[in-house]
Write a structure and sequence with these properties.
Blueprint (H helix, E strand, L loop, with lengths): L2 H28 L23 H10 L12 H8 L5 H18 L17 E12 L2 E7 L4 E5 L6 H11 L27 E10 L7 H4 L2 E9 L7 E5 L5 E3 L2 H11 L9 E2 L1 H9 L2 H11 L2 H27 L1 H72 L6 H78 L4 H72 L13 H13 L15 E3 L7 H8 L7 E3 L2 H13 L9 E3 L19 E2 H4 E3 L2 H11 L4 E4 L2 H8 E5 L2 E4 L6 E4 L5 E5 L2 E5 L10 E2 L2 H69 L9 H66 L3 H57 L12 H5 L11 H22 L6 H63 L4 E7 L4 E7 L8 E2 L7 H16 L6 E5 L7 H17 L4 E6 L12 E5 L19
Parallel strand pairs: 3-25, 3-26, 8-24, 9-20, 10-11, 14-17, 24-25
Antiparallel strand pairs: 1-2, 1-4, 4-5, 5-6, 6-7, 9-13, 12-14, 15-16, 17-18, 18-19, 21-22, 22-23
């Protein structure tokens, strides 16, 4: 594996371990109480464990057929690589990457895992069954374990430790870890004979609950089968079987993932304590105990990991320093290539600018085609409107009614007159349009000339500034060169430079001030007529207000408001007053009204029928008083008599009470005529119903003339039978005299009215009065607004005048200041010319350049001002022509409308089918003509659309090429020879910066191409390829950028690693102290059960673990720091208590302890067994397996405790003898 790959992998592994350590520390901090457990189940790394590959080494050795046991130790590394899948050097790199990915993918989330939580029996990770075949001293052996406490008891040599070795080997440990053999083949039962193919081991684990490993695949049980083959080519390895015994995997990685998920740690000495580890722990030194402690709690592994991270940091820093040293040459090379390439950028820029002009030329052409298309579409729209108009005319012509010949002749004459007038108006309009076009031509020319002068003026100002800068720089050099020897000359030069600079600034201010003066003056001049208009508007509104007030009064008078009731009869007013008094006195039982005329008004807009309606009602109707019952009639007679009414005055009428509730429903008037009920407005139901009953107001029709009434209502059925078209109408009155006709005995009878008509009924002006009052309020508001606007304009006039005066004064001061500075400047220059100390550098030419530039600017300003005056002088004539054109156009439109109206009316009066058909055919031909014209226009539009599309596509293609040129010029890596796709063209938008026509851009293109050719010839670059220089520079630049980015990345990684390592070291020390404290407290607890006490003393610097024991926890004098002073049993019990205390921090689902009690005296052993059993039963979520050769008869089995007694060894047993069985 390459070194860099190894380093990356080591850093990744370190990061994973440290991340797990952080999780572990956080879990420790969050736990309460005196117990502290390490969040185990960390990722396993076989390269950190010396014995991790033992089994795999020997199995692979046997697989390859190598029988020499003496060479196995020397082949450890090679066999370890075989175990991890590294068959050769070439594939090692890929295999290690795959292993890293598998490890990462199988890492379980520690924060979410709570294997076998307390409070209920264990569900996942505990051992259910152990099966061995041809392993060590067992031919076949099956052990069915309890889920909580298990004791395996038997004599030495009975095969107790073989069960422990089977568990270790089957769950991933190597042969050396068992301390029984150096390779797995040595563990195969020797008594099996030469025919033995090898050993087979099975460990069945419980796999239930939320923390089970892939329960959907394996079910409630997982069986790990380990095969040890003695034959070449035999299978050496692991199998994972599900609950049904079906093989699911042979991958060691899957085994590691399962052990990690279930938190099984067979290589942790606290989880699995074999005889050798037990002896070493019980009899070892303080350093051995501390090493045991750090290994059991994985503190040692974390420390090694942090050291590896520190080494990686140092290596990366070294790489960073080497890379920094190698940058100097790359930087110099990049600078050199950049300088070479920049020689070509000027030509590239000119080429891009030329291409940009080509694009603008194409866009200008597109815009011209588009403008032409829009004009054609407007023409088509005009044709369409005209066609629609002609179609309407045709429809009206087809529906025209018959009229007389005289009317037709009159309309024909009117049509001829209008046609002649329209022809003359059209000619006038054409003439005015031509005059306007001729008048606008010089204006457009002047505008173009002005634009050219403005651009030239801008260029002249830039040249002036450049000349001034050169002059200032030269004078500055003069000042620097003169030094102290010519102070006076230097001061004079500085003053001249300062004055010229100030003078230039002041002159630049002159034009803006002049513009501002003109602006304020123009504003003042514009406001003055505006103020007059405001005054006229205000006075006009005042006059309108007086007129509206008068109209309101007239309408009120016309409607009869306030009029005397005597117009209906001399006694009407008196009787009305008497009725009102009686009503107030409540003398009437029903409704009483009168006179009837009081409730009758003429509907607004129908005043011409008022007298005719009153004639139709008849005399003696409007002065009547109406009652609804007999009692009221008698009372009215009395009141009538009291006021002195004669026989013809104020007649009385009694109406049915029901008629007083609502008005009768009457028919609507026929079209073309009116009824009395449709002319008069009568709101009172009694008055309305009285006129219907008494005067037959709903049966009398009113017409404008006798002819109109006959045309609308008269019907002659022939045979002398005549009738009125509407049966509800009985009499028909007509203007102007009031004559009427009716049908009697099926014959029309006409009656002339010889009496003059009169009007006593007022016009209903209620709506008109309301509208007039509303108008009055609006006019009052308008007057207030006019006055406010007039005041605002007056104020604005004052402000404009004030601003104009202020700017005028400022301009005068500025001109005076300019004059003074010019005089001072002339004096200084004259003094400089007469000075004996002439400057070393002559500035006269530069000063002349400045003066020439100033004169040029002033001359251009004058030319611009002259052209503006000429443009301004052209505007009145053009505006007058435009006004004439608008008036002529409006006149043509009116004539056209009159023509249409006359033609329509003429068609209405044409008699006879032939003449009407002739007119219709003429209109149809006209419509067809318009349709054909519209079709031809559509063809033109389609052609123009094609031109627009082609121009647009051409413009986009050129713009695409232009964009590529600019992109390449800016340093992007693009292929300028690639053709654009449809998607590329669709993404290009229409340019909006095109302000000139295509001819202008064509000239620009020719000028730019000429300039490019001159530049090529001047630089002698015709045979040099700029692409090569650019590519070399870009490659060097990209290489340099890449190297610098790599250095920055390394630097950031180093800083992050240093910061993270420092933080993890700190937390690691906190974690170590916490675990040590919890271990000491648990140690004291276990000693208390024997009546003793103690503590664990840690010396982390020296790497020592010492025990302090007080034999009698009530007698401090019995305390000793020298464990050797204790008896063998006391020392063994104390050491056992330490072992249990360390185990408190472990959360593995099961723990195995082999020969833990060999050095205990009977009393200590009894207490130890009692403590172990009690502690184990209190932790029913864990499984404990204790292996001892001592007597366990004092223990009692129960559902939580199970004792296995092994058969004594058969020292002379032969192959095939009785197999050992588990005995409860």
């Amino acid at each position: 594996m390459p070194s860099s790959r190894k380093k990356r992998r080591a850093a990744q592994a370190a990061d994973e371990d440290v991340a797990n350590e952080n999780i572990e520390a956080e879990e420790v901090e969050n736990r309460s109480g005196r117990r502290s457990r390490s969040a185990s189940g960390r990722k396993r790394h076989r390269n950190n464990n010396d014995d991790g590959g033992g089994g795999g080494e020997e199995i692979k050795h046997d697989k390859n057929g190598e029988e020499d046991d003496g060479q196995r130790e020397g082949e450890d590394r090679e066999d370890l690589e075989e175990e991890t899948g590294n068959d050769d050097d070439d594939g090692g790199e890929e295999e290690e990457e795959e292993e890293q990915e598998d490890i990462s993918s199988t890492t379980s989330p520690l924060r979410e895992r709570h294997v076998n939580p307390t409070g209920k029996p264990a569900e996942a990770g505990i051992i259910d069954t152990v099966y061995v075949e041809n392993f060590m001293c067992h031919r076949k052996l099956t052990v069915k374990l309890c889920r909580n406490v298990n004791f395996i008891h038997g004599q030495n040599g009975s095969g107790k430790s073989a069960i422990l070795a089977a568990i270790q080997v089957c769950l991933g440990a190597g042969a050396r870890r068992t301390h029984r053999a150096r390779n797995l083949k040595d563990l195969v039962r020797k008594e099996s004979g030469a025919d033995c193919s090898g050993a087979k081991l099975r460990v069945t684990l419980l796999n239930r609950g939320a923390d089970g490993y892939k329960p959907d695949i394996y079910g409630d049980y997982i069986t790990v089968e380990r095969s040890i083959s003695l034959r070449p080519g035999g299978f050496n390895g692991y199998k994972l079987l599900n609950a049904a015994g079906k093989e699911c995997s042979r991958s060691k990685r899957d085994l590691d993932a399962m052990l990690d998920q279930l938190n099984i740690q067979v290589e942790n000495p606290v989880a699995v304590l074999d005889q050798e580890e037990a002896k070493k722990f019980l009899t070892g030194k303080a350093e051995d105990k501390y090493e045991f402690f750090t290994k059991a709690t994985e503190i040692e592994r974390l420390d090694r990991t942090y050291a590896n991270i520190q080494d990686s940091i140092l290596e990366q820093k070294e790489v960073q320093e080497k890379a920094n040293r190698a940058l100097d040459g790359a930087i110099e090379n990049t600078k050199r290539l950049k300088k070479e390439w920049e020689q070509f950028k000027i030509l590239d820029k000119l080429g891009a600018e030329c291409q940009d002009y080509r694009a603008m030329y194409a866009w200008a052409a597109h815009m011209e085609f588009k403008a032409k298309l829009e004009n054609e579409m407007k023409t088509a729209h005009k044709y369409g409107k005209s066609l629609e108009k002609r179609r309407v005319e045709l429809e009206k012509a087809e529906q025209a009614a018959n009229v007389t010949d005289d009317e037709e002749t009159q309309q024909q004459k009117r049509l001829t007159e209008l046609t002649e007038e329209a022809t003359a108006a059209a000619a006038t309009k054409t003439k005015i349009e031509q005059e306007l076009k001729r008048a606008e031509a010089p204006l457009k020319q002047k505008v173009r000339e002005k634009e050219v002068l403005v651009r030239e003026s801008s260029n002249a100002r830039r040249k002036l500034k450049a000349a001034q800068r050169r002059l200032d720089e030269t004078r500055r050099q003069i000042i620097e060169q003169t030094g102290n020897a010519a102070k006076e000359e230097r001061d004079r030069t500085e003053k001249i430079a300062t004055l010229e600079s100030d003078l230039a600034v002041a002159k630049e201010r002159v034009d803006p001030l002049k513009t501002e003066i003109q602006t304020h003056l123009k504003r003042y001049q514009d406001i003055e007529p505006m103020l007059g208009q405001m005054k006229e508007a205000r006075e006009g509104t005042e006059r309108q207000l007086h007129a509206v007030q008068k109209r309101v009064k007239d309408l009120q008078a016309e409607s009869g408001e306030g009029n005397s009731l005597t117009v209906f009869g001399p006694k009407c007013k008196a009787l009305h007053e008497a009725v009102q008094k009686a009503l107030k006195a409540k003398k009437f039982k029903g409704s009483v009204i009168g006179p009837v005329g009081k409730y009758v008004k003429v509907i607004n807009g129908k005043e011409k029928y008022a007298k005719l309606a009153e004639l139709a009602i008849g005399p003696g109707q409007l002065d009547r008083f109406i009652v609804t019952n007999t009692t009221d009639m008698e009372l009215m007679k009395k009141l009538r008599k009291d006021v002195g009414c004669g026989p013809r005055d104020c007649a009385l009428y009694q109406i049915h009470p029901n008629a007083a509730k609502e008005k009768y429903k009457t028919p609507k008037p026929p079209d073309g005529v009116e009824l009395v009920t449709s002319v008069l407005s009568i709101d009172n139901p009694i008055a309305f119903n009285f006129l219907v009953d008494s005067a037959r107001a709903d049966q009398s029709a009113l017409a404008e003339s006798m002819e109109k009434s006959e045309q609308v209502l008269y019907v002659n059925h022939g045979n002398g039978h005549e009738a009125i078209r509407f049966p509800s109408v009985k009499k028909v009155y007509s203007l102007p005299k009031g004559d009427y006709w009716e049908i009697k005995a099926n014959h029309r009878v006409g009656v002339s009215n010889l009496k003059p008509m009169k009007q006593t009924v007022g016009v209903d002006r209620t709506a008109a009065i309301d509208a007039a009052k509303h108008e009055l309020k609006a006019v009052q508001n308008e007057l207030a607004r006019n006055r406010s606007e007039e005041d605002a304009v007056k104020k604005e006039e004052f402000e404009s005048k004030k601003a104009w005066n202020s700017v005028q004064k400022e301009h005068m001061k500025l001109m005076k200041k300019i004059k003074e500075m010019a005089q001072q400047l002339d004096d200084l220059k004259a003094e400089a010319e007469t000075s004996e100390e002439a400057p070393t550098i002559d500035t006269s030419e530069l000063e002349s350049d400045v003066q020439d530039a100033e004169m040029t600017v002033e001359d251009l300003k004058k030319q611009v001002a002259e052209i503006e005056d000429e443009i301004e002088s052209l505007h009145p004539g053009i505006e007058d022509l435009k006004r004439q054109l608008d008036e002529t156009t409006a006149r043509n439109d009116r004539i056209e409308e009159d023509l249409v109206a006359v033609e329509s009316k003429l068609e209405d009066i044409v008699k006879g089918h032939a003449r009407r058909q002739e007119a219709v055919e003429k209109l149809r031909a006209n419509v067809k003509k318009h349709e054909e014209a519209l079709e031809q226009q559509e063809v033109i539009i389609q052609s123009e659309k094609a031109n627009v599309s082609a121009a647009l596509e051409t413009a986009k293609k050129i713009q695409f090429k232009c964009d590529l040129d600019w992109a390449k010029l800016s340093g992007e890596d693009v292929d300028i020879n690639v053709d654009p796709t449809e998607e590329d063209l669709a993404q290009i938008g229409i340019r909006e910066d095109i302000t000139k026509d295509s001819k202008y851009y064509k000239q620009k293109i020719l000028a730019m191409e000429k300039k490019i050719e001159l530049e090529k010839n001047r630089r002698n670059m015709s045979n040099v390829d700029p692409a090569d220089a650019r590519d070399k520079y870009l490659r060097a630049k990209n290489d340099l950028d890449s190297k610098m980015a790599q250095i920055d990345t390394i630097k950031r990684h180093v800083l992050a690693l240093e910061h993270d390592l420092k933080d993890r070291r700190k937390r690691w020390r906190q974690f170590r102290s916490h675990i040590a404290q919890m271990t000491s407290l648990s140690f004291d607890e276990f000693l208390n059960k024997k009546g003793s006490s103690g503590e664990v003393e840690f010396d982390h610097e020296a790497g020592q673990l010492n025990l302090i024991v007080q034999k009698d926890n009530k007698d401090q004098k019995s305390q000793t720091k020298d464990v050797k002073a204790l008896s063998g049993g006391e020392r063994s019990y104390a050491t056992l208590s330490l072992l249990l205390a360390i185990g408190e921090s472990l959360e593995t689902p099961f723990r195995v302890m082999d020969e833990f009690d060999v050095f205990l005296d009977p009393v200590a052993r009894k207490i130890a067994l009692k403590t172990l059993v009690k502690t184990a039963k209190s932790m029913e979520h864990r499984q404990f397996i204790f292996i001892t050769p001592q007597d366990v008869s004092n223990l009692t089995t129960d559902p939580k405790l199970k004792i296995f007694t092994m058969k004594p060894p058969a020292r002379n047993a032969i192959v095939g003898g009785p197999q050992q069985q588990t005995i409860d």
